[in-house]
Amino acid sequence: MTLPGPEPARLSARDRVIVALDVPDAEQALGLVERLDNQIYWFKIGLELYLFEGNRIIEKLRSLGHSVFLDLKLHDIPNTVAGAVRSASRAGAKMLTVHACGGPAMLSAAVEAAASVAHAPQLLAVTVLTSMDQSQLSAVGVPGSPADQVLILAQMGWRSGIRGFVSSAEEVAAMRHTFPAATLVIPGIRPAGAATDDQKRVATPAAAIAAGADYLVIGRPITQAPDPAAAAAAILAEIS
Question: Are 173 and 159 in contact (CB under 8 A)?
């Protein structure tokens, strides 16, 4: 399965940036979309917004001409995740996250479910959250570094049929080298001088693209800026 639209290497800056609509309801989400003045093609819907609005918010964004990255990080038994993938396919999202920690059986079930339905989203396996550093990994019993764990999980995902991954920008160069054909979606993006907030492993937009990222997920540096449109324009200019 390939991502709809142009090949990543040919994407414009506008096509590479995914703005995270991490807000509680559709009113605030659509207000941000409007303030961005049609500069952005992709929007991410995460748990906070999706649990309140459901598929209605996906349908609304699609009606406005946007593509949706549905970031639910599915992580459950294989049968449950397979059913969730089929349901998400009917909603019309173009990308959907599953959690690589669910293991090979779960990932394989997700891939098989996506292959069984029309217009399925591209599956992206989330490796290690960008909020996790070495101390956080150690606390959950993972002895290796974030970089090591990202590659372990991505290799397992690739063997299970996953062809897209989410990692931090710190790992993107190694990921691109190991998986030259994979779609790499990179969160934790912060323009130079911006606060890192709760993110531990971050990079600037230009650095992440130079290292091999296909898509950048950017939230608060745009959505909480005094002028979101100006903030987005600056990031697009940096990438260009």
Answer: no
